[in-house]
Design brief:
The chain has 275 residues and is α/β, with parallel strands linked by helices. The protein is 38% helix and 19% strand. Helix 3 links the parallel strand 6 and strand 7.
Length: 275
C-alpha cells in the first residue's frame, strides 16, 4: 500500500482516508495548512478502487462487496508506528474506515473527524434512497444535451450530479444511446444492496472521540442511525448548512477548519490527561 507523508515526524499523527471512488489527491487542498500541526499520512488503500470489488449473495440478493481497507491501514500503522495512536480525517467511506478502526483497533485510535457517515448501512440513508428512486429511471436513450438537462432536473445536488455524469458514456457518438461505465454500475449496486458497512456491532468498543460533519439534506446517515448515534457520548455531530454529502468539496473551509481545530483540541485533552 502506497502512503504519502507530510509534515513534522514528531507531530501528532493524522491519517487521511479518501472515499470509495476518491483518491489521495482529495486531500491536496488541505495538506499545506494541516502539515504545520500534524504528521500526515495519506494511504492509497485501494489502488484501482472498485476493481477489487466482488459479488456475494446475501439473503438471496446479489450484493457488491468491497475490501474497505481498515485492515490494511491498521497493519501499516502497527508496523511503522508501533505503540502510537493516530487521528483520522475520513471522507465518506473513508470515514467508515476510520470508525471501523476506532472499534476494531482501539489501541491505534486517538480520535477522528469524518464527513457524513455513520455506523449504519448506507443503503438505508436518504442519499441512497434518492439514488435508488432516481438513477434507474434516467432515460439513457437520448442525446447528451437532452440527458444533461434531465440530470439537472432530477438531481439538484450539483456534486452528486457531477459524480453521476462522470460515469455515463456514449460508446458510439453517432447513436443517441448512453450507457454506464463499469464503475458507475458497481457504485449504484454498492449503494443499493451492500450491507458490508454496518458497524453497529462496534458501538460499545469505540473509545476515542469522533466528530461527524453531517449534511442536512440527502445525507448518507439514515435518520434512525442519526438518532441512535446521538446517544453515544464519544460522537459529536456538526450539521453543515446547505451541504450535501460531498462536504469537503462544497464547504472546503469548514472541513479544513473543523478537522484542524477538533484534532488539536483532542490532542490537548490527551496531553492534559497524560499530565
Amino acid at each position: 500500500m502506497k502512503v504519502e507523508s507530510y509534515g513534522k515526524t514528531n507531530a501528532p499523527l493524522l491519517v487521511c482516508v479518501h472515499g470509495l471512488m476518491g483518491h489521495v489527491h482529495d486531500f491536496s487542498p488541505f495538506i499545506k495548512e494541516w502539515e504545520k500541526h500534524f504528521h500526515i499520512l495519506v494511504p492509497d488503500y485501494a489502488p484501482g478502487h472498485m476493481e477489487k470489488s466482488y459479488t456475494e449473495t446475501v439473503n438471496g440478493q446479489d450484493c457488491l462487496m468491497y475490501d474497505l481497507g481498515a485492515e490494511k491501514i491498521a497493519a501499516y500503522l502497527k508496523t511503522h508506528f508501533p505503540n502510537q495512536k493516530a487521528y483520522f480525517a475520513g471522507i465518506s467511506v473513508g470515514g467508515k474506515i476510520s470508525i471501523e478502526i476506532a472499534g476494531r483497533y482501539p489501541e491505534l485510535f486517538a480520535g477522528a473527524v469524518v464527513t457524513d457517515v455513520g455506523l449504519g448501512q448506507l443503503s438505508k440513508s436518504n442519499l441512497c434512497q434518492f439514488i435508488e428512486q432516481t438513477i434507474p429511471y434516467i432515460n439513457m436513450q437520448q442525446e447528451w444535451k437532452a440527458l444533461r438537462l434531465e440530470l439537472r432536473e432530477k438531481i439538484p445536488d450539483r456534486m452528486l450530479r457531477i459524480l453521476v455524469q462522470g460515469h455515463i458514456e456514449y460508446k458510439d457518438k453517432s447513436v443517441a444511446q448512453a450507457s454506464w461505465r463499469d464503475e458507475g454500475r458497481k457504485f449504484y449496486m454498492l449503494l443499493r444492496t451492500s450491507n458490508m458497512e454496518d458497524l453497529w456491532e462496534l458501538e460499545d468498543k469505540i473509545q476515542g472521540p469522533i466528530v461527524i460533519l453531517k449534511a442536512p439534506d440527502l445525507s448518507a446517515i439514515a435518520d434512525d442511525d442519526f438518532k441512535k448515534m446521538g446517544r453515544i457520548p464519544q460522537i459529536k455531530f456538526i450539521e453543515v448548512p446547505k451541504a450535501g454529502h460531498f462536504i469537503q468539496i462544497t464547504h472546503p473551509n469548514v472541513f479544513r477548519e473543523v478537522v484542524q481545530s477538533s484534532i488539536l483540541e483532542m490532542e490537548s485533552r490527551q496531553d492534559h490527561h497524560a499530565n
